[in-house]
Every structure is written in structure tokens, then in C-alpha cells.
Amino acid sequence: GAVVSQHPSWVICKSGTSVKIECRSLDFQATTMFWYRQFPKQSLMLMATSNEGSKATYEQGVEKDKFLINHASLTLSTLTVTSAHPEDSSFYICSAAQRLHPSDTQYFGPGTRLTVL
Amino acid sequence: AQSVTQPDIHITVSEGASLELRCNYSYGATPYLFWYVQSPGQGLQLLLKYFSGDTLVQGIKGFEAEFKRSQSSFNLRKPSVHWSDAAEYFCAVGNPRSNDYKLSFGAGTTVTVRA
After folding, report:
1. Do B92 and B31 touch, CB atoms closer than 8 A?
2. Least CA distance to B43: which residue of chain A?
3. Taking residues B3-27, what's their average pLDDT?
4. What is the pLDDT of residues A68-113, one digit of tens each?
5. Contacts of A36 (CB under 8 A, 6+ apart)
6. How far apart are CA A117 and CA B65, in angstroms?
7. CB burial class (10 A; 0-12, 13-18, 19+) of residue A20?
């Protein structure tokens, strides 16, 4: 089956530093990747949609300059949390879709736990 | 805007008993419907999905879901739960009229299985 990995699985950083999270589709090419944020005991909130080779589309209320997304290849997307602050602490999850169709299954990564001190 | 409601925050069920998780959606037309399961330390895994056709959908791990247009529901069921079914379950909807392929997720239902 389709596998999506994320790295790192958890990270602790100091306030003011930047953190990069990688999302890789291991056995398929992902035309589209999505980034979600999940707070404890809550649902997934879509942050942005990224298509390979083009700029990401951010959801309303998500700061583009704080959450930089790059989708440089069909198997890799990165999320960089710039100048992180404690309120950015959360569980970040990516997903990837193989084809460009709304019915496509999104395959999810295991998530990255970010803690900002 | 489409929305998804999972009325039950937490359900406790005995091993071997049946399980039903509720999902209601609000949308003008029939959306794409999905059920995902999230286990600790693992990514969300697709259990099943519905686009059209037969309203009873069979999924993995012995799960099934039934789409009821009149009730705007897509409830998930399993006849006999196993201890390994303890997890968080999310219902999600996609917009077939949109080109953005985004999913809207419900708040999730935590399932606890007791021996």
C-alpha cells in the first residue's frame, strides 16, 4: 500500500528558532500534498495544500510567512515553522494524494510532534 | 460550506460487542465520504470511502458504513469489536464539485474497548 513518512517524528526547539518537517511519499508520486495541524483531542485542521512545482495554497487564517511550504518534487514536501513560539506547539500531519481528483484517497503520514519551549 | 458532525466524543464498548459510530454531514449535494482511523503513533488509515452506487460500503478490518441520503448520515459499524479497534475514528467529507480536493474532518470519536 501507499506509504507516507514524516521526519522527524518529534522535535523540541527553543522559541524563535525555525523547524523543518519533511513529508515523503515512499512508493508513489504525490501530485498533491496537504498539511494539517491537530490539537490534543481535536480534529485535523487543514493548513495548506501544496502541488508539486507550484506555490502552496493556504487556508484562511494560516500565516504564509510563518509556515513555509515547499513541494519541490513528486515525493517530498517540507513544512518550515519559522520563528517558532510556544503557541505553535502542536501535532503536524501531512497527507499525499496520487492523482489529481477529489475522490482520491489521501494517505497520511504518522505526524510530527512539535514542542516549542 | 460543508461540515461534518460526529455526535459521540467517546464510546466504550465491550470486546465482541457491536459498534456504531455516527457521522452527519451538511452539504448541498452528496459529498465524497470517508472514514479514517488513527491509532497512537500511527498515521490516519483509510477504513472505507463512498462516492456513489451501493449505499452499503465494505471496508478493511471488518468495518462497513451505510450512506443514508435522507438522514445526511454515513455511520460506521462493526459487528464484533476487537481490543485492537481501540483508537480515534474520524469521518471526513470531500467536495465533488471542487477542484481543491480538500477534506473536512469531524471532531473524532474515541473508542475504548473493555475486556
Report:
1. no
2. A110
3. 95
4. 999 888 899 999 999 999 999 999 999 998 876 666 788 999 999 9
5. A44, A45, A46, A47, A92, A93, A94, A95
6. 43
7. middle
The upper half-sphere exposure of residue B5, i.e. CA atoms within 13 Å in the direction of its Cβ, equals: 8
Distance from CA of B83 to the nearest CA of A (A): 21
Contact between residue B61 and residue B79 where contact means Cβ atoms under 8 Å apart = no
Polymer length in residues for chain A: 117
State the Cα–Cα distance between residues A28 and A39, nearest whole angstrom.
29
B110 CB-contact burial (10 Å; exposed 0-12 / middle 13-18 / buried 19+)? middle
Name the pLDDT band for B96 (thresholds 50, 70, 90): confident
CB A103, CB B32: distance < 8 Å: yes
C-alpha separations of B94 from A27, A30, A80, B3, B25 in Å: 24, 18, 27, 10, 11
What one-letter code names the amino acid at A110?
P
CB contact under 8 A, A97 and B101: yes
Q: To probe the interface with A, which of B44, B61, B95, B112 has the most A CB atoms within 10 Å? A: B44
Give the max Cα distance, chain A.
Answer: 40
> Could you report the per-residue pLDDT of A43-67, keeping only the tens digit for each?
899 999 998 888 899 999 999 999 9
Residue A110 touches chain B, beta carbons under 8 Å: yes
Residues of A in contact with B105 (CB under 8 A): 43-44
